[in-house]
User: Fold these one by one.
Assistant:
Number 1:
Amino acid sequence: MQTLLKDSGLKITMQRCKLLEFLTQVNQQHLTIENIYLGLNAQGETIGLNSVYRIMAHFEQAGIVSRRVFESESAFYELNNKPHHDHLLCLTCGKLIDFIDPLINLRLGLAAEHHGMSIHHHSLNMYGYCFDCLQALKSKSTR
């Protein structure tokens, strides 16, 4: 934890280490500030909500986490420890799935090239219904 903070140019503090440790150990990949705050407190850590906001802003600026905003009002954070990926989001239950599709990346690159651009980064979010929610919607409509 300390090496990552140091390499990112951030001062090493106990709160930053605790928060980063929490992010690396939690199973959920996309967390709101409130999720992080509640998770830390459930583990007995006494980091205030304002401190979590501040630390996550520093982590984002340092490139440790990415902030994602979907169609909800909440921002979601995820560690930048995996390759670039896109997202599928269920409109009913909020299930969020990461996926990588080389063909999509190829097509985006070709589209950019066609228009005289070079892609620096992109964000692709697709919205729909997971199979569980789709099944529930179908059974509800047949009643």
Note: The helical segments are 2-7, 14-25, 33-42, 49-62, 102-114, 131-141.
Number 2:
Amino acid sequence: MTRSRFAALATLAFALSVGAAAAQDLSPNGVKTLAPAGAIKTTGTWSLGTRAGDFVYIAGMRGIDAATNTLVAGDEARIRQAFLNMKLIAESEGATLRDAVRLVVYVTDMYRFRPLVNKVQEELWGKGPYPPRTIIEVDRLNQDDICEVEGTFYAPAKK
């Protein structure tokens, strides 16, 4: 085999491996796995979000600072960070907070944290309209966090 033919085959093999890796980001039916720049890193067998057609589904986000991979200090700041982490992923697919079609918020103390969730939502969404939201009190969250928020967003796919 000539050196140039070997180089061409090596280049082709590399291109195919890169293409295969990119193809793994899409399911057989076109569901795209999301991991935008600047987002937190996953720590297990889950993805930050997915795009399926015109909808973006975002996993439960907590108050983690992506730069340090640690929880933000302060209850209100941590809740705000959870929403901002969700917002970053939605925006990476062309959605805004106003494109939220459903939110689910988990808190470990309804009486303490629901008012803070409401305050942060008003800060981020203004005076509304607000998306449909379910808020649920749970016994415990990962790393003994206080809040987790997940969302579904409408973001028409670019054709």
Note: The two ends are 44 Å apart (CA to CA).
Number 3:
Amino acid sequence: MERPSLEINLPDTYEEGKLYVVDSLNNLNKLNVCPDGSQYALENTAGSNIRNQCLFFVTFILTLIVSLALVSFVIFLIIQTRNKVDQISSRLISEKKNIEDLKKMNNMILKDPCLRG
């Protein structure tokens, strides 16, 4: 009695797999899966995608530039406001000194009977 062989003949299945792949590719070519119109649609979609990415990039750069300009303007306004506040503070200090001097002069006038009149 002959025993059936349990060995698998790998080279034959490998060759059959190759043939199956080649047949599948041939069938796809025969079906013409991508007719000329759909190929154009795929290229058009890719071009549109690239345009969208470029548009996004340009918009992003413009947004960064506008943001930088606004921040610079705000910093400029803060510096100007600080300068104005410093000027007003120095004026108030000098006016306070002038008022104190006038009070001293007024007190001297009120104390001296000769200067009252």
Note: Residues 26-116 form one domain.
Number 4:
Amino acid sequence: MAVIKIHLEAESVVSGTITITTVTSVVPTVRRYTATVVLGNILGGTTTIPATSFTGDNGAALPAGGLTVPTSSGYYNVYVNGVLQRSGLSTLSTTSLIISTALLIGASVVVEVVNFTSTASSTSTNNIAVTTTITD
């Protein structure tokens, strides 16, 4: 018995639009810490100020390990007596700020840490039509 096959051609046309709406939010979080350099902070041409020597914006003393460090999307600035210092002269960790020079006793040091949190959400709406024509 022979098999009969039907041979048809189909052509589809896709038309319409897809609309994508994205809402992005970037929120900065700023922390500022203030300390005064004392004799014990200076050793061998380097100034190391422990976290416990700093106060926060609210005036409260920080605990050991209480400094905020920037995330991969953040940064920090160091001001000595109100003057912004060059990048690379200091190292900030949760436990201390190390400045690669000996500062004067009594100098005011301010650390400003800025971190960013971002979120994004997208929605899509499609208005697609497919028309298929079958011919023999």
Note: The CA atoms of residues 105 and 125 lie 64 Å apart.
